[in-house]
Amino acid sequence: MKTNYFILTFFLFSILTFSQQNYEFGLIHVSNNNFKVVAIPNFDSSGNTDVSDVGFTLMLPAGTSDVSDITGLLSGRAWSINRLTAETLITLGGDGTEDGNLLNCPPGQTILAHTSGEQIDLVSFSISNMPTTGEMRLLYNTEIIAINTAGALDSFYNSNIDGTTTQNYFSGFVSGLESFNFETLSTETVQLEDNSIQVYPNPASDYLNIATKHTIKQVEVFDVLGKKVKQNISSNKINVSQLPVGIYIVKVFTDKGQITKKIVIE
What we know:
With 266 residues, the chain is mainly β. The chain is 10% helix and 47% strand. The chain is built from 3 helices and 20 strands. Strands 3, 5, 6, 7, 9, 10, 11 and 13 form an 8-stranded antiparallel β-sheet that branches. It has a 5-stranded mixed β-sheet with strand order 4-8-2-1-12, with no helix packed on it. β1 (23-31) and β2 (34-41) form a beta hairpin. It is globular, with a radius of gyration of 20 Å.
């Protein structure tokens, strides 16, 4: 009986530990109308992982804007795109204000090792006829149009991470990297006076607060290597509790210009 109990306990512990290994997706603004989507693991791989197929749905304001210049960044593998108009999505529960773009890297093989928190570049793309208002965002699997397509629009990351079986390890989106506000790019590149915006506390451990009389358009946080680690839309409070201890650069975009601040997370 004790032996059986031990085996059952070990089995359940293994399942729990295994299920906690996952990847989150993040939408990154590279420059101008160029973007990329990355996967960020919450674990160090013990060896090479074998990435099979990956996909997600990108939502854009309805209209003439389009996803173009798609370049696969997983060993150069090609990605496909399936576009769904706002009118089509209405039949699936959409509100008629967004077009959908399903991007998919078909089954194949990409061998890689990674560390926890590392950005794994999945695919880059451009937005043609880019709007000046509204936002681009990643579609949640729990949204009605995803549910009504029986998972056809779901985000997923199928991989064999331990040499056993290929499974879906997608777990959600990185906080602050779920969307991009197009109004940010129309903000004047005016550098504001240093005392016009306060970012506090500094050092911080849980949240950063931003105090300004101007309207905040977007806030971006970069590490010392220049990698964007946080992106918040129109928010004056940013959760930094998940960021490693260190020095970071905070860029605050407002309707009157922008400012850059150096902060410490401890």
